UniProtKB/TrEMBL annotation:
Protein name per Swiss-Prot or TrEMBL: FAD-dependent oxidoreductase
All residue ranges annotated as the Glucose-methanol-choline oxidoreductase N-terminal domain in the record: 241-255
Cofactor: FAD
Keywords for the protein's UniProt record, in alphabetical order: FAD, Flavoprotein
InterPro entries associated with the record: FAD/NAD-bd_sf (IPR036188), GMC_OxRdtase (IPR012132), GMC_OxRdtase_N (IPR000172), GMC_OxRtase_C (IPR007867)
Family: Belongs to the GMC oxidoreductase family.
A UniProt-annotated Pfam family: GMC_oxred_C
Lineage: Bacteria, Bacillati, Actinomycetota, Actinomycetes, Micrococcales
Organism (species): Microbacterium algeriense
Length: 495
């Protein structure tokens, strides 16, 4: 369907990340005049394109470098939330792992009111993405340590799963990734960049708010104060992510009325759900040194993570609740480094019960948001992540690692008994970079957007990114964000 047929002649897409790049491409192909706005610059940093250098991007100019407020259930620490501030968004910073999630994830969305988002609806979209512009592959050579990690997981009793995106998540697998010829491929490079000359692209421009007149979004404000600039279009699409999109909505006067009024922001539409329902996956490290042979440094073009596993920490779960991710380097993070070589089995929680929120601290672009993940607030989250840490410790002790490599646990270390692992988890948990939910879609009055991703109460405004996810899927969120981009573009063009 063309833009003319759908009635959409022009559109502003805010955010050139995973979802936004796809939306911009699909609208451009349909003849819509697209203005794509990105707060960061172009992806000229070589570290973006070399999978072995992804770790260099944290705290860089390409990272929004968000932090949570102190997390009382996670050692009182402020957790770093890296988010992409560059063309490609967080898909320019991440580990390029492609996970659809479980069919039951999406059927649960639909049952909760996200009509038309069940597995039968989204599976064809995944098929189309993977067979169209975005290369998704596990056809690459495993690093020796990664092959041994997979062998050790099998020795621990996990099945070897040759295709975790094939309908069954459980087991240990080689990761399916968006890498081609040793280079990162993201939706910016695959979708938007090839048609960049057919759209207007504004980089280095921060969006302050959406312009709403008589209940309809008509454009956006770039910057603020005397330097503010207004840009207009038929439709406004916010694809700034689970942290960026609610911030823009709140500054626009779309959000919880009392919170907005307290900051002196005129209320345009009372939307109590904006910024609520924030949740994220969490990780906790188990780090090993090797005494028989070195793992070696990262190799150009080779990701430092190539395998992961899905496992149920207790009986009766509809899908796995843990997803350890395995690194060919010691991921010291805030821990004291103990050497320069080794590997990390990063325990992972992927079905969190805890829910936090995002609020504004002021109406200006420089007012940092108050981000509270409520990390590990629900005891079930701590229990699952602690069980995952214990499993990673057992895997490290299997012959494929302990005997072949001489693997020795450095952290938590022998002084931390299995019974004390929960304290370790609360002291070391970090984000898996999968924030979702702050503009939840649904059919109830508390939902920020309806199942067609239209912002309730405001015409001409949609949210198309991971913020609309009601409950985080089982696994990495890059693939779901791409799927949401494809579906959102279809909804918009259908009128």
């Amino acid at each position: 369907m063309t833009g003319a047929n759908s009635g959409v002649r022009s559109a502003i897409v805010v955010g050139a990340g995973t979802s936004g790049a796809i939306v911009a491409r699909r609208l451009t192909d349909a003849g819509v005049a697209v203005t794509l706005v990105e707060a960061g610059g172009y992806d000229t940093n070589p570290a973006i394109h070399d999978p072995s250098r992804a770790g260099e991007l944290w705290h860089s100019t390409e990272d929004w470098d968000f932090f949570t407020v102190p997390q009382p259930h996670a050692g009182g620490r402020q957790l770093h939330l890296p988010r992409g501030k560059v063309t490609g968004g967080s898909h320019a910073l991440n580990a390029m792992i492609w996970v659809r999630g479980a069919a039951s994830d999406y059927d649960a969305w639909e049952a909760a009111g996200a009509t038309g988002w069940g597995w039968a609806d989204v599976e064809p979209i995944y098929d189309a993405i993977e067979n169209d512009l975005l290369p998704v592959t596990d056809d690459y050579a495993l690093s020796p340590i990664q092959a041994s990690i997979i062998d050790a997981a099998v020795e621990e009793g996990l099945p070897r799963n040759p295709n975790y995106n094939g309908g069954t998540l459980d087991g240990v697998s080689q990761e399916q990734v968006t890498i081609k010829d040793g280079r990162r491929v993201n939706t910016w490079t695959a979708y938007a960049q090839p048609v960049a000359e057919r759209m207007t692209i504004l980089t280095g421009r921060a969006v302050h708010s959406v312009i709403v007149r008589d209940g309809r979004a008509v454009g956006i404000r770039l910057g603020e104060g005397d330097e503010a600039e207004e840009v207009f279009a038929d439709e406004v699409i916010l694809s700034a992510g689970a942290l960026g999109t609610p911030v823009i909505l709140l500054r626009s006067g779309i959000g919880p009325a009392a919170e907005l009024a307290a900051l002196g922001i005129p209320v345009v539409h009372d939307a109590p759900g904006v910024g609520k329902n924030l949740h994220d996956h969490l990780l906790s490290p188990v780090i090993f040194a090797t005494e028989k042979k070195p793992v070696g440094p990262p190799q150009p073009g080779v990701s430092v993570t190539q395998s992961h596993l899905f496992w149920r920490s207790r009986d009766g779960l509809p899908q796995p609740d843990t997803q350890p991710i395995h690194f060919s380097v010691p991921m010291w993070g805030e821990l004291e480094p103990r050497g320069t070589d080794g590997f990390t089995l990063m325990a992972g929680l992927v079905t969190p019960y805890s829910r936090g929120e995002l609020r504004l601290t002021g109406p200006g672009l420089d007012d940092l948001p108050h981000i509270d993940l409520a990390a590990l607030e629900d005891q079930r989250d701590a229990d699952a992540l602690a069980a995952s840490v214990r499993q990673c410790r057992r895997i490290g002790g299997q012959p494929a690692l302990a005997e072949e490599w001489g693997a020795v646990e450095v952290y938590p270390g022998p002084d931390v008994a299995d019974d004390d692992v929960e304290e370790w988890v609360r002291r070391t948990a970090i984000t898996y970079h999968h924030q979702v939910g702050t503009c939840r879609m649904g059919s109830d009055p508390q939902a920020v957007v309806d199942p067609q991703l239209r912002v309730r109460g405001i015409e001409g405004l949609r949210v198309i990114d991971a913020s609309v996810i009601p409950t985080v899927p089982t696994g990495n969120t890059n693939a779901p964000a791409a799927m949401i981009g494809e579906r959102g573009a279809r909804f918009l063009l259908a009128g």
